[in-house]
Each structure stands twice: as structure tokens, then as C-alpha cells.
Amino acid sequence: METPVHAPYRERVRIEIKKLREMPFKKKMEYIWDYYKIPIIVTIAIIFVIGSFINSRFINPAPDAALFVVWNAGFATDEQLNSMKETFETKIIDEEKNEDVIITTFFTMAEDPSISMINIQRLAAMLAAGEIDVFLVGSQMLEEYALLGYLQPMESVLAEIRVINPAVYERINENIVRGDIETEDRSTAERIIGINVSDSSLVNKIGFYVNELFFGISITAGQKENATTALITLFE
Description:
Elements: H1 9-22, H2 25-59, E1 64-72, H3 78-92, E2 99-105, H4 113-128, E3 134-137, H5 139-147, H6 155-164, H7 166-173, E4 176-182, E5 188-196, H8 201-206, E6 214-217, H9 224-235
Parallel strand pairs: 1-2, 1-3
Antiparallel strand pairs: 3-6, 4-5, 5-6
């Protein structure tokens, strides 16, 4: 029995229900799928999207970044970076909060201009979003980032460390790096742009394969206190 196209809505529903009741189970399923598969698929998709949102927002939300580190200093193994990440977490993470330390790398084995451009765009997007707190880079990259306005001067951080941990301050102060940095009025001035951490306690313990490693704080750092803690941890 075909459902009249121009029949009133309630009449069409009544006919559909009657038709389904008279069908065997298998036929009933085939009929429902043939005629209602698009609404079913759309409904399932909507339920999935809503469920994913509720899960990620309320049930299992992604951890907040207590510290976001960019590594651009050459080759490092996942094991080495994870060791640094875990050490930072023991000093920074509040167990009562849903937080994480993130270390992302920009290192590539091949000198591919297209990959370099992708990395530049990726870095610019991260800075624009205010994600980056700390840079771990080589000396040339440190100088370039300072001139590009990616770094903030570190005098205030060092003054804070001097109060918090005088012994560590003395070790850090021996490794300060001065250079030209872009100021707020777009001019340049010589300031402390980074810290040479190549021979720091944590770097030596992990045994990174790089010859030089410098620590700088991002101009957009939202977790400056945690960045300061990370620097202290490197020299403890």
C-alpha cells in the first residue's frame, strides 16, 4: 500500500505505521533504511558531534598547557624530550588541576624549503595564538628570534630567580646571553635575550646530542611563572 503523497500528515503517519506492523522484521529494517537512511545518517552524525563536544568539554576535557615549549635546536629523541617534559611536570604541574607540559619540535632531517616554510607559518600561528611560553634553540636561532620580536628580555625573570633561589641564580647568571632585541616601539636595544643551558644539570643528565642549547622566553608567554620554574629546574 503506497502512502498518498498529498494525504494529511497524520494520515500518512498512520499508513506508515500500519505498513511497518504488517512487514516481517527483515523487510521492516530494509524498508526503514531505504526510505529513511538520510535522516538516520544525519541524526547519527548530530548525536556523534554533540557527544564528542560533551565528552571533550565536560567529561574528558583536554589538559590545559601549564608550559608550552618549542624545541628548535637540532635532533633529539622522543625519549630525551619526554624525560625533560616529565622533569618539568614534577616541578610545575598542580595535581589538582588538569594540566600538561607540551614540548613540540620543529626539527627536520631534510633541508626542504617547503618544510621550512610550513614551519615558519606554524610558528607564526602559534605566536599569534599566544601558545608558546619557552624556546629551546641554537645560538643563531636565538639571535634571529630576538630581532624578529619573538623573545622578551629576561632581566625581570633573573631578578625573580635571584630572590627565589640565589644559588641557582649564580649559575644562570654565568650563562646569560646578550643581544639586540626588538622593543615595543619597533627599535632595537641590547638586552638579555636568553640563557645558555648547554651545560646545565638537566641537559647533561639527559644527554642531548646537540652542541649548544639556549633558553628564551616567548614575547607572548602566558605562563611566565612556569617558564621561570622551568629555567630554575634546568640548573638545579
